[in-house]
Amino acid sequence: MTGSQRGDARPAGAGCVSGFRGGAHRPVRSGARLVFRVLAVPLAPMMALLLRLSSRRQGIAVVYHGLAARSGKPELELVAPHGTDVFERQVRHLARTYHVVPAADLQRAATERRRGARFPAAITFDDDLASHVELALPILRRIGVSATFCLTGATLKGPHSFWWQRLQHAVNADPSRLPDLFEALGAPERRTAATDPRAIHELARLVEALDVPAREAFARMLPDVPASAEVGVPPGGVQALASAGMAIGLHTRRHDPLPSLGDDALAAAFAEGRDELERAAGQRLVVVAYPHGRADRRVARVAREAGFTAGYTGVPVPVRAGDDPLILGRITPSHRSGRHLALQMVVVLLRRKGSAQRS
Ligand SMILES: [Zn+2]
């Protein structure tokens, strides 16, 4: 779910994967980013080559959500899709410059990397979106790389829309609803700020912070997204992905932020719907992508106990040899171009510190 990426070189974090961030525009900071981008983008390929001379035992996981004919606007959309042209150029860059492996094998490939070798990279997708099968799969097959699709399984029995999808759909249809929705969430003081459509990110942060019953009540306030707009991934779609050599991972059926759940609800989150997905995929699910990109040590422990061998958050840090395999970072590629992703990758590989944990 949810993205708020401004398409610059440094990953800003995307909603479903790392919480709702968008909103207020910071002119000075974006000015500096522009200069950084103009200067650094042309240098990225050379920097990537120089980095290969190091013995860093690292890799990078990237996360996409929906694809569409054109890239969406991260500042106005919670989960802005990537344009198929941008996606294809980015995957070609990864296939040309990195060693693309399944998400389940990324940390092992990073650990085994030797000086001069390509850095391993893993392509992942979150959420249950029809574009996984209709748009992403043909491009991945054409380029000859695999990806890991982390699904909730919520659309195995028919179309289903989560609160952020309903929110986006409602605001797209009528942006003037935003102030009322802030009021409905007990934030009438934000009505004025809510006239700016970018405030949808702030509203989403408020919803994400609610407890489960309150969030479900908020979802019921909004009209369902019509099936014509999003059918999700029915069993046939899961089979199509799996039989094309893609891996399937878990994204948890209810997509609740896991650190906020009690122990019983947390254990249930890793079990609910897993069998159904495994049956549809014909494979065991060993990778989990944490909803909203959030996981702490307790979440990682329960995921390990549930038999998962790799767990991905939404923190934009590299995957390193010594990391907890159940708390690994991921970056959201720029919505702009393959060249911007090239720079993002180099910037992240240069990052030595920083935990992938996010509570
Ligand atoms: Zn998600």
Which labels suit this protein?
TIM Barrel, binds zinc ion, six-stranded mixed sheet, disordered N terminus, single chain, 359 residues, 15 helices, 10% strand, 2 domains, alpha/beta
Provide structural commentary.
By secondary structure, this protein is an alpha/beta fold. The chain has two domains: 26-161 and 231-349, Alpha-Beta Barrel (TIM Barrel), CATH 3.20.20; 171-220, no CATH class. It has helices at 15-18, 27-40, 44-52, 84-97, 106-112, 131-143, 163-173, 178-184, 200-208, 212-220, 235-243, 263-271, 274-281, 297-305, 338-349; strands spanning 58-64, 67-68, 82-83, 99-100, 120-126, 148-151, 247-250, 287-289, 310-312, 319-320. It is globular. The model is unreliable at 1-14 and 18-25 (pLDDT under 50). Helix 7 packs parallel to helix 10 (212-220). The protein binds zinc ion. Residues 1, 16, 126-127, 251, 255, 291 line the site of zinc ion (ZN).
Strand content: 5-15%
Number of domain units: 2
Rg, Cα atoms, Å: 19 Å
Q: Indicate the mean pLDDT.
A: 91
The description of the largest β-sheet is: 6 strands, mixed
What is the fold named in CATH at topology level of the largest domain? TIM Barrel
What is the count of DSSP helices, taking H or I runs of 4+ residues? Answer: 15
Order of helical and strand elements? HHHEEEHEHEHEHHHHHEHHEHEEH
> How would the global form be characterised?
globular
N- and C-termini, Cα separation: 17 Å
Helix fraction bin: 40-55%
- The CATH superfamily label of the largest domain reads Glycoside hydrolase/deacetylase
User: Class by helix and strand content?
Assistant: alpha/beta
Top CATH class of the largest domain = Alpha Beta
Q: In the CATH classification, which architecture of the largest domain applies?
A: Alpha-Beta Barrel
Hetero ligands: zinc ion
E-strand count: 10
The low-pLDDT segments are: 1-14, 18-25
